[in-house]
Design brief:
The structure is a homodimer. Chain A is α/β, with parallel strands linked by helices. Helix content of chain A is 41%, strand content 13%. Chain A is built from 24 helices and 19 strands. In chain A, the strands form four sheets. The first copy, chain A, has a seven-stranded mixed beta sheet, with helices on both faces. In chain A, α5 packs parallel to α6, α12 (310-324) runs parallel beside α14 and α20 (503-516) packs across α24. Chain A is globular. The first copy, chain A, starts with 11 loop residues before the first helix and ends with a helix.
């Protein structure tokens, strides 16, 4: 099978067959395992042509976000293993050097590819390998909105090292091409029409009076510029395109031309998201990331567990809040559906925005709205707020503004793995002065969290998990009060379980299991990590000596470490703290339950540990 | 005096006089107090015209970086207080709403202004104040390289709310204008020449054969595009310019035109850095930020304390390393002099780069070089690495690459204040898996740190202060060894001082003072915060019970908190940890010693605290 998929030296017809085979395989496996569908079937020809013209053994193949790299995986050494796509210990949904030498770099966050390609180009030059190697970055138009891309283009246009950028324009975001004229000009570039036209134009302009010489020169320049490529040309990058991104032959011609040019080139390829799977064709967002589905009908296979996702609860709560309060505004950075903000954009189109992949701008622009008296809800995945860390410090917190950071996908995200885990937000936000940090534990408290955030003065953030909250049982539903924890139950043993956010549900489950073993433990919902409820902890330190921490966060700088500092500061010397937060390593992909088992944080595993701690 | 400075309703001649007065005052005060000279004298007319055309009481005046805002401060309510510029409790070198209502927002980090202006524009629209208010962003060309600017322009060009961007082009970074032609066209925009030329061109093109109609249209478009503004026009932002940024009359005309347009406009103003102070004119970097100087000669007044700065030691050490090892490469993000990388760029122009204000790109591009076998030294101020936090996690640490982060300006930076303090790096880096974190304590160990970083496998970072290291006395100079601390001296008392980085010098000084009082204390140089030397701490926990932490870093997530976690984990129950790291608040500007006194971390102050702790 792998031999059949060798693309080097094949005819165009054979390459087309390979594309059919790849597309079929991708649809088959994604329909079973879930994954990125439309971006992958949309990029089949782009990648087949890459492997035809370039050599993944030596040319750095850099896939932006790499959610379109399935064809590359199938074409290299992972055809057979591909059925384990996104499974625990299986093939990653993203490029991953530890999985294959053909994967040059990881990616999961967008817009890094041109920087990587430029770094590789510098290295290639220093190693004097320019005759044999050229970096190729494959980037979707959706990734072009992030500022990092322009930082890279700015240097690339100046330093002018050979780098080939394949812009996969599937109309996710950037401006539409001008249409007929640009197509006309792009065809012209490949053939000799452009050369002829240039000459003819010059001849015509010869006959014009006075300023003709300068005009001729400028007109010639302008011909190049009136394509959608002018933005790139302006930045000093040669432009080829648009090319039909589903025509392997045209792509090969464009790639070969780019290779010959021996300088920075951008190839603008137009593709259709979902190409080849009719039900998905053209539906940009719906078929981007999917769960298992029936191929014939396109219907989702997995029945829901009946529990509502934290995201949809948030979206509900925010919608109610925004209905009542006209100063509530909000933003998402290219995750309208993922964050539930799409509903708000529909309901309040003048007050909620999707600013595309632009986390820095999202945060800072909302800070100005807060300055003007609005109450912005900045809704971003925990992992993506890392991209606006300085803006959180510099624009929200130094200014002490009334902005809310609603952090979705806090904790383990499952199949997306290392690049997407929401592990660090508590650690990186805690050190920032003026920032208040709290978390809802369940469905009811999510509404309370949104209510509280609205009333809070100063910057605040709250986190909630991917999927649904754990079950916290029937505990009293209190409003949030700054810095106040909630004791869910007292216990007769020495043991106190301290839960934070989605960790509370796990603590409750562990308590139930311990109860079966005859251990009656206390449970505290911490609610706030900053400011933390020192008073209640002080009181509890008198009755409970074994404290166990439950939070979906990194141990370093997390909940347990915050409490360990208090233990030292207030001399709770007899208290022993054990944290079941995440160990100090990047967390791999797979079904969340399997990942948690691997991390030894399933309730059953924790119960054993607690019993062992407590065996005396 | 303030009345004289009222610009509204004044004649052009009177405005020119005001410019002279402002310039004189700025030069006078900066020559005494130090500060940003050339950017401020270069922006006098831009700001005078802003106050003439717009109203700082209602229009948001947004100064990018705000290191050019002195004229604005003098024109609003701070003429008399201006002599306290950058002094402790004096006028800030940046805009600061807590200092004056005329300051709309803080800034110190670059490239936030267009995002802020857009946020303000959204708020103004929602409040229905568009008839009365328009946000104005004043941004230097140097700030235009950061990606955040493009994220903001991308939304602005789409949403098309009225925002006026004044691009102060003092040739710090972006591409030069085309010269004669662009000037010609920009003049044309203001008058009627452009209209005439358009008509004439159309007439000419009428007589051309075949494709003339489409060509006429395109040529007309191209006329607009062949100015330096085409980049902005492409993004949907109207362009006016270039305008002479030292001609108040031209500026007023351009601003008034922009105001009338009622949509996003960029005014491209060309200025001379240092304008009006002949010695500084045109010298971009030398006169950007200066210490006190003699106005007549331009010579620096402050004599050095004879101690070499940590930056210059680093630069020395790196130069020696790069001479010996061809795989050493490095980057700075627009701080070549500040980081000492300018010397490396001179010595090794093919291996060291200044990539402009583009921290994200700087980090990620160097990660690709590491992948190719090079050893990049990414040299960035502690505060600016916040801008590449995600890249540190996603591209350096998940990939576990051999990259070095050399963090300059760690700790208190003095006169730059809140926005620039290097307080958070230990906190935000510690939680990242694979990251090794260490610090030199003095001159000799700086060389050792650079040596160690070269040999270290995986991502690592080390920090060092602004200015010179504290004096650590004559202690043994050992090479760094992963995770190993160095005990500088044993003591006869219960007290252990634990220093990290520049904190070691303070610990040594405190130990000397305590010795005078008859207390003989032990001193540990921690050297590594991650991995930390648990073994030596375990041993020391047996002999020393009062541990005091010295580090120029935030207490939350800092050195003390790391050790408090170990105390809990290893049950060092009799040990009491007290940290003299920074409290949880943003640290204001002023002379470093005064700031440290305010924070109560001067050695003399700490000695008192230790004696009080230890009074039993």
């Amino acid at each position: 099978m792998d031999k059949m998929l060798e693309v080097k030296g094949k005819s165009v017809e054979e390459l087309k067959d390979i594309c059919v085979t790849l597309r079929k395989k991708i649809i088959e496996i994604v329909s079973k395992n879930g994954g990125h569908l439309s971006s992958n079937v949309g990029a089949v020809e782009l990648i087949v042509a890459m492997h035809y013209v370039f050599d993944a053994k030596k040319d750095p193949f850099i896939f932006d976000v790499s959610h379109q790299s399935y064809s590359h995986k199938l074409l290299t050494d992972r055809w057979d293993d591909f059925e384990t796509l996104r499974e625990f210990d299986g093939i990653s949904g993203y490029t991953k050097p530890s999985e294959s030498d053909y994967d040059y770099f990881i990616a999961g966050h967008s817009s890094t590819s041109i920087s990587l390609a430029l770094g590789a180009a510098k290295a290639i030059k220093l190693k004097n390998e320019q005759k044999y190697r050229v970096p190729i970055a494959l980037i979707g138009d959706g990734s072009m909105t992030a500022g990092m891309v322009y930082e890279a283009l700015n240097e690339l246009g100046d330093i002018k090292l050979p780098v080939i950028i394949i812009l996969n324009d599937n109309k996710m975001s950037i401006a539409k091409p001008i249409g007929a004229i640009s197509k006309f000009l792009s065809h012209a570039i490949a053939g000799d029409f452009f050369q002829n036209m240039k000459k003819r134009t010059e001849q015509i302009l010869q006959y014009l009076p006075d300023s003709a010489t300068y005009m001729a020169k400028k007109f010639e320049e302008s011909l190049k510029l009136i394509t959608p490529g002018m933005l790139f040309e302006e930045l000093g990058i040669d432009y080829i395109g648009p090319v039909d991104g589903h025509n392997v032959e045209d792509l090969i011609r464009a790639y070969e031309l780019a290779k010959k040019l021996n300088k920075p080139v951008i190839i603008h390829a137009q593709t259709l998201k979902g190409k080849g799977y009719e039900i998905a064709e053209g539906y940009e967002e719906n078929w981007h990331g999917v769960g298992p589905f029936d191929i014939d009908s396109g219907k989702a296979l997995k029945s829901s567990d009946g529990k509502r996702s934290a995201t949809s609860l948030y979206s509900d709560a925010l919608s109610a809040l925004a209905t009542e309060n006209e100063n509530v505004v909000g933003v998402t950075a290219a995750m309208p559906t993922g964050t539930g903000i799409s509903r708000l954009i529909n309901e309040f189109p003048s007050r909620f925005w999707d600013v595309a992949i632009a986390e820095q701008h999202a945060v800072t622009s909302m800070c100005a709205m807060a300055k003007e008296g609005f109450k912005p809800f900045i809704t971003i995945y925990s992992t993506f707020l890392q991209r606006a860390y300085d803006q959180v410090i510099h624009d929200a917190c130094i200014m002490n503004l009334n902005v809310v950071f609603a952090l979705d996908r806090a904790g383990i995200v499952g199949e997306d793995g290392e690049t997407h885990q929401g592990a660090f937000d508590i650690s990186y936000l805690s050190a920032i002065p003026n920032m208040t940090i709290f978390a809802p534990r369940d469905e009811k408290s999510m509404y309370r969290a949104v209510e509280y955030a609205y009333k809070h003065q100063g910057p605040c953030s709250f986190r909630y998990p991917r999927g649904s909250f754990g079950d916290c049982g029937d505990v009293e539903d209190l409003p949030f009060e700054l810095g106040k924890a909630q004791l869910l139950k007292e216990g007769t043993s020495d043991i106190l379980l301290i839960g934070y956010g989605n960790g509370v549900g796990r603590a409750v489950k562990v308590a139930k299991l311990l109860k079966k073993d005859g251990l009656d433990v206390a449970i505290l919902d911490l609610r706030f990590i900053k400011p933390i409820d020192v008073d209640i902890l002080e009181k509890l330190s008198k009755n409970y000596k074994d404290w166990f921490i439950f939070s979906d966060s990194s141990k370093i700088g997390g909940v347990g470490s915050t409490i360990a500092c208090l233990k030292n500061d207030f001399a709770w010397d007899s208290v022993k703290i054990t944290s079941f937060e995440y160990k100090d390593s990047f967390i791999k992909h797979g079904n969340t339950k399997l990942v948690e088992e691997y991390l030894e944080i399933l309730p059953e595993q924790i119960v054993d540990k607690i019993k062992n701690c407590n065996r005396e």
